[in-house]
Amino acid sequence: MSMNLGRNHRHSLRATACLLPTISAACGSIRPSRAVSPSARCLATETSFDVHARTKPAVIYFAKPAVVPSVEAPVLTLIGEKCGVAPAIWSRFFSLVFASTRPPIVTPIFRCLGPGKLAIAIVEGLHAADRVHPRNITLSCRRPEHRDQLQRTQKGRVGTVTVSNHDAIANGQRRLAQLAQRDAAPVCSSSCSPSHHRHILFLTVKPTDFPALCQSIGPLVRQCKPLVVSATPGISSAQLQHWLTGSSEEGVAIVRCMPNTPTAVRQGAVAIVPNGHASARDLALVKDIFSSVCPVVEVLQDEAMLNSVASLSGSGPAYFLYLLEVMEQAGKDLGLTPTAARELAIQSCVGAGALAQSRVSRRIDGSSSRSPRSSFHELRQSIAPPGGSTQEAFRSLDADGWSRAVRNAMQASYRKNVAMGSED
Predict the structure, then answer these.
(1) Strand pairing class (40-42; 48-53)
(2) How many Å apart are CA 123 and CA 287, to the nearest integer?
(3) Residues 332-344, mean pLDDT to the nearest whole number
(4) Which residues pair with 274 in a beta bridge?
(5) DSSP tag of 226
(6) Taking a C-beta distance cutoff of 8 angstroms, is the pair 11, 4 a contact?
(7) Per-residue model confidence (pLDDT) at position 80
(8) Three-state DSSP string of 255-284
(9) Count of alpha carbons within 13 Å of 141, Cβ hemisphere only?
């Protein structure tokens, strides 16, 4: 890494040597966001940026293309002082370049087999987050008419749509080789290597289709050794490995995940769990990808808990939509117009979620404590004073067995997920 400063503001590398360990720890590589202002103008390569602070230009060349997950403000201020750039300008530059982008340690080569609604939600969420380059995404479906539809609806979001799973996997390996060759070129850092890229095979097919699919692509998976990510409930890593390899001894890196459909609007929740063959880097990559589209990413230690997650957050959005459907109809029965009933119900749901996040969730204030500041019960009681109309509504719900019905519904979902996992 080197710093070239404007005239009268040149500092030797020796003068900034004290910064290098801090910078190296915080910065690996740079990728600009799409919104780059004139004060943060992208130069010839994606790893060089020109910063103009009045008449004090400073160009920083980052030779190692890895990642900048975060840079602390004190570090930015210190670098800016060494460069003679006003702290406000310097901080603004970094916020523009890295705003809302958290590139992965490894560049994902994303291949999705069975692109149903959930897979498309993830692809659309990743595109909205500018998370994975479209050329690195391939979708594989069974029917030509489905392929044609995806080519129309996902144009600009994916690079290729095919009806051949084998072509999708082989294409991923070719793309991997292209990136490795590019990174080995003189224009790139010599520190680049194929290990900076990872072939991800994302499986979202129906549970009943899994055995035949895995046996079909098994030889190619054993040859290419991609990271297999499964988003299908009820199918264990042990089952996947057996179907892919025919044995439990040959290792396949697998990460199971359970995202939900709000991923499409970058408001998803996902739980992930690796098998014994997935590396810490594999887990970090999957977590990093999902963190761009899922504000809540939980890493589980017990794979069996994914059945519980599927019953809670996997099906959860549908539960709330069912409630909204009933509330909308009840509002109309009470004389509200369809538009008023619909919009008031939606905003009530959104507002309740925001209120829960601000009062219950530990994510909002960044607290490391696992003890919430208040409970859902306490929050509910705070807006349902005794003797009021809301309290009367709760009495009616309790009389009709509301709580028992919700618990029974989630238990039924859980049992179905377990049953799907027990089918060979």
Answers:
(1) antiparallel
(2) 15
(3) 98
(4) 255
(5) P
(6) no
(7) 56
(8) EEEECCHHHHHCCCEEEEEECCCCCHHHHH
(9) 17
